[in-house]
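Revision sheet: C-alpha cells.
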Amino acid sequence: MPQTPKHVLLAGATGLTGEHLLDRILSVPAVSKVVAPTRRPLAEHAHLVNPVGELEELLPALKGKPDVAFCCLGTTIRVAGSPEAFRAVDHDLVVAFAQRARDMGARHFLVISALGADAGSRVFYNRVKGEMEQALRAQGWPQLTIARPSLLDGVRQEFRIGERLAAPLMRLIPGKLRSIEAGVLARALWRLALEEGKGVRVVESDELRQLGR
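Predicted:
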C-alpha cells in the first residue's frame, strides 16, 4: 500500500486551493510535519512550521527532508500588475521553489498548472504555464504530477472580475472545460500525493474532479 507522506512542504498555503489543501493535510494523523512558508502568519498548529516572509527570500533557509512538495502558487496579470510580474510568480518562483524542494530531498512534486498550458501557445498565460511545466520536467523529478484545472470555483480574498463573470457559465460546460471547486482540487492533489509512481503525470481537470469527489 502507498505510504502516507509524513513530512510535507507546501507553497501557496494562503491561496484559494492552498488553504483547502493545508486544512486537508493537517487533518491527516500520519502527517507529522508541514512546512508552509507564507507572507502572513497562518493559524498555529502542532504539526505546522510557518516561516513568514517573501518566498524567494525564505527558500534558502527552509529545512528538513520532505517526502512530498506541493506548489499552489499562482496569480493573474491583472493582480500581478504586468506580464513580467506574472511570469516572475507563475514561472520563476514556481521553478525556484521546486528546485529547493528537490535539493531538500523531496521525491514527489505536485504543481497546479492550468488548462491549456502549452509552451508553444500564442496566448501568453498558457505559454508561461507551459514553459513552467517544461522547466519542472528538466529538474529530473523521480515523480512529478502536473495538475491542469479549469477555472477555479471558490471565494478568493482578492476580487477577480473575469473569473466572477465566467464562473456561472463554466459550471455548465461539460468535460475538462467545466470549472472545478478549489476544495475538490485540493482533495484530488492529496489523493495524487498518495499514489506511487515514476516519471511525469499530467492530470486534466475532468480527472481532477473525479479524484476529488
